[in-house]
TrEMBL record:
GO terms for cellular component: membrane. This is Peptidase family M50. Keywords: Hydrolase, Membrane, Metal-binding, Metalloprotease, Protease, Transmembrane, Transmembrane helix, Zinc. Belongs to the peptidase M50B family. It comes from Enhygromyxa salina. It is found in: Membrane. It is a multi-pass membrane protein.
Length: 247
């Protein structure tokens, strides 16, 4: 779950996955295309084809992520709906009495669904006789065959799917609000410090975001990750100020 639900527009795309309604806000497509232009920079493929492949990979992957939340909520008897928007997606439902374990499981099953999907894709790559990297551009390729180069459309699409489902999934588990990892951290802290769990979780988010922003900037040179965690850290700081003002 990421930020608030955007207002409906006449350009929204509506469909259902089983009995789970899905709404796609037009800004989802715009932001995905913009990020796609960055993702295919330097690739040996037509930029418009690359942007289309990236957008398709992001759509499938974020929908899978939100279905992980939604299906788990539905299993507990809470009818969900999904909204994809500029900052990712939301699985929206109205729980009755929700236990800590239920909250943690619902939050985890977003990234968890992506890990399962990414793992199946990775297994398919290995079965095809290729080697691949679960974290493209970061980790070490696994397998004895030739590595996926991303030179062809299918290979590039597969690399995008691995990156979004695995790397973004790991990012989502970082204990920073409003990422899934932030919600999980708050739920765990509540067990031991129920009265001040919220400010503790926000302080944890500020510290974690700061460390990751500096690390991304100085070690890996990843300006996008640095800016993202910088903004998230500042957002957590603002939320902490509001919480402390009302205590």
């Amino acid at each position: 779950m990421f930020l608030a639900e955007p207002q409906t527009t006449k350009f929204d795309l509506h469909f259902s996955v089983g009995k789970i309604p899905v709404r796609v806000h037009p800004m989802f497509w715009l932001i995905s295309i913009i990020f796609g232009a960055v993702a295919v920079r330097g690739a040996s493929i037509n930029i418009f084809v690359g942007m289309a492949l990236w957008t398709a990979a992001v759509f499938v992957s974020i929908l899978t992520h939100e279905l992980g939340h939604a299906v788990t909520a539905k299993a507990y008897g809470w009818p969900p709906r999904i909204v994809l928007h500029s900052m990712g997606g939301l699985a929206i439902f109205s729980p009755g009495s929700q236990s800590r374990k239920q909250r943690i499981l619902i939050d985890f099953m977003g990234p968890g669904a992506g890990f399962i999907f990414g793992g199946l894709i990775f297994a398919g790559v290995l079965l095809s006789g290729h080697s691949a990297n679960l974290l493209p551009g970061i980790g070490v390729p696994v397998g004895s065959g030739p590595p996926l180069s991303g030179g062809g459309r299918l290979e590039l699409f597969v690399l995008f799917l691995l990156y979004v489902n695995i790397f973004w999934g790991l990012i989502n588990l970082v204990p920073v609000q409003p990422l899934d990892g932030g919600h999980i951290a708050k739920a765990i802290i509540e067990k031991f410090r129920p009265r001040d769990a919220w400010p503790i979780a926000l302080k944890l988010g500020i510290g974690t975001a700061g460390v990751l922003a500096v690390t991304a900037l100085l070690v890996s040179g990843d300006f996008f990750i640095a800016i993202m965690f910088g903004l998230l850290g500042y957002n957590n700081y603002q939320m902490l100020q509001q919480v402390q003002a009302h205590r």
